[in-house]
Write a structure and sequence with these properties.
Elements: H1 8-20, H2 23-30, H3 34-48, E1 53-56, E2 59-62, H4 64-88, E3 94-100, H5 102-105, H6 109-119, E4 123-129, H7 132-140, E5 146-150, E6 159-166, E7 168-172, E8 186-191, H8 196-208, E9 212-218, H9 221-229, E10 235-237, E11 246-248, E12 261-268, H10 275-291, E13 299-300
Helix pairs in contact: 1-2, 1-3, 1-4, 2-3, 4-6, 4-10, 6-10
Family: Belongs to the LysR transcriptional regulatory family.
Protein name: DNA-binding transcriptional LysR family regulator
InterPro entries: LTTR, LysR_HTH_N, LysR_subst-bd, WH-like_DNA-bd_sf, WH_DNA-bd_sf
């Protein structure tokens, strides 16, 4: 069988279209015509030797092979961009202060820091993993250069919406229903107030007329995971960064009400950050979008 070498320009159009939800938007961003992008998508299926897309209403959705292709395309582009940045920007120096939500600290931070350090060994990074309010406060005060935080609905002067993630009810990896036998009120495990996800959970339960009680309150996400894994209470987070000891309940499981989506925002201390902060932001955004495929559009409008 002849060896296939995928065209990186084709893969970039493919990934950009899926992330934007429209290949027409991808063409505009990449400076191509829609017909050129359509030709690229046809070339991708020819190179893959199988259908990558299927019709879904007026647009396109990925086949199973397309889902696999998207994951590999992101990895190939990341490696290509890392190599290009390493060759062009080996002289980057300085100091970047990065802040992250706890949800992304363990699952995202090691890969982001490792990739950045390999390409730019002369740049020093100070990372802080804290609660949402502190992240926004620090980046607004100029004590962080970049901060990845949940959207509060109140934008900072220099912020960029990244994606929307579904909130999900979280329970132990092993267990039956969310309400223990004989319990009169649903036990909740939550972070200390103020917490957007805690507020969303209690509001949803109140609207549904479901009695609840705070069974466990933790100042940290690690404590929350421990409580949920032990079955002390149901909690609410997004599907990103879940440890193996817990699981996201399926929608409607146990009669639990639906939850809203939660926006993720990248805040910058300055409108035009320096080269090191700009490059770190690029790597961070790529990592976030790659770690949250459920949040990205599952289909896209045809070009």
């Amino acid at each position: 069988m002849p060896r296939v070498t995928f065209d990186l320009d084709v893969l970039r159009s493919f990934v950009t279209g899926m992330e934007l939800g429209s290949f027409a938007k991808a063409a505009d961003r990449l400076g191509r015509s829609t017909s050129a992008v359509s030709a690229q998508l046809k070339k991708l299926e020819e190179q893959a030797g199988t259908a990558v897309f299927r019709k879904a209403g007026r647009g396109l959705a990925l086949t199973e092979a397309g889902e696999t292709m998207l994951a590999y395309a992101r990895r190939l582009l990341d490696l290509n961009d890392e190599a290009a940045a390493a060759l062009r920007g080996i002289e980057l120096e300085g100091w970047v202060r990065l802040g992250l939500q706890e949800d992304f600290g363990e699952s995202l931070l090691p890969a982001v820091l490792g990739r950045f350090a390999r390409a730019h060994p002369r740049v020093r990074i100070e990372a802080r993993v804290v609660r949402n309010a502190e992240l926004v406060e620090r980046v607004t005060a100029g004590r962080l250069d970049l901060a990845l935080a949940w959207s509060t609905g109140l934008p900072t002067p220099h912020c960029e919406p990244v994606l929307d993630l579904p909130m999900r009810w979280i329970g132990p990896a092993e267990g039956s229903g969310p309400l223990p036998a004989g319990a009169e009120a649903l036990p909740l495990a939550a972070l200390e107030a103020p917490c957007q996800l805690r507020a969303a959970a209690t509001a949803a339960l109140d609207r549904a007329g479901i009695a609840w009680r705070l069974a466990f309150v933790s100042p940290s996400l690690a404590g929350l995971w421990a409580a949920a894994a032990a079955g002390l209470g149901i909690t609410v987070r997004t599907p990103v960064g879940l440890p193996a000891s817990v699981r996201a309940l399926t929608p409607g499981e146990g009669g639990l009400p639906p939850l809203p989506r939660l926006g993720l925002v990248l805040h910058r201390a300055e409108a035009e950050p320096g080269p090191a902060a700009t490059r770190l932001a690029e790597i961070l955004l790529q990592a976030v979008r790659g770690a949250a495929p459920a949040a990205a559009p599952r289909g896209a409008e045809a070009a």
